[in-house]
# Entry
Amino acid sequence: MSVDQSLLPLLREINDLKRVRAAGIEGTLAARAFRRAWGRLAAGDSPATVALRETALAVAAARLGGIDRAMLTRAGLDDDAATGVLRNGFDAVAGPVDPILAAALRDHLGEHDPAAAEPPAFVHDLERQPRAGATRPGHPRLVLEPPESHADHCFVTAVTAALVSPSYGADPAAPFLAGLCHHFHNATLPDSGFAGEVLLGDHLDSIIRTLTYEVVATLPDHLAHACEQARKLLPHAETPEARAFHAGDVIDRILQMDHYARAAGFELRHAVEEMELVHAGPLQDFQTGMLRDVGLMR
# Structure
């Protein structure tokens, strides 16, 4: 089996969480969720619980952005009303998700937000570490702006892996955790992409092992063991969970490049005509008429 193409629009919207921000939130929504996930894992939440909770919140955020339970309750909504809004956001995009997985995810949107917990120090390092972009041995680096962080990539890979897990008959927890922890070494090692890895030659494996162990050694025993088990999915694609992880990883990498391509090809008509930037309402006729008069609309 392979990933259903109907999932692609949702996965593209989730990929955009690497670029969506909100006042009062440090970094991108993806980076915030990466910090939150690691904080709860370090505090003792099970990988299965964190995987389902964070995947559910990411699906809802695809359309709601930074509108979360905390913001809604601050604005005066009670718990039931806030849950209803989150589930509206989820339902708006979750149609292609496997029905059994979708039901489990939707249930998690009814939970109270877990207590905030400080993530391990390496999490902040991964958020500060930019991704290399596209590199090829023997060629200059293709620099694309803005660069994503390793926190962005790891979180969206984790969510994508969880969402495609049913396509491979996989439990989503292990692929999700593998996504979170597959770049431990880049908390220290600057990312020079495949070109840099080739130049490191025979030293690459030992460098990755050394720097990965540095991170694992900072984790509580229960979490270190879980991460070591999840990382066993990285070298192969022979099990359902490994295939789900690798599918999530490569889909995220290609959708990141797709974002740059779409941004470079953006035209004003996309916003005005296709996205109805001047949207329906009592002022629409005046606004569109004025814009035509000054030559900004056809």
Q: What stands out?
A: The radius of gyration is 21 Å.
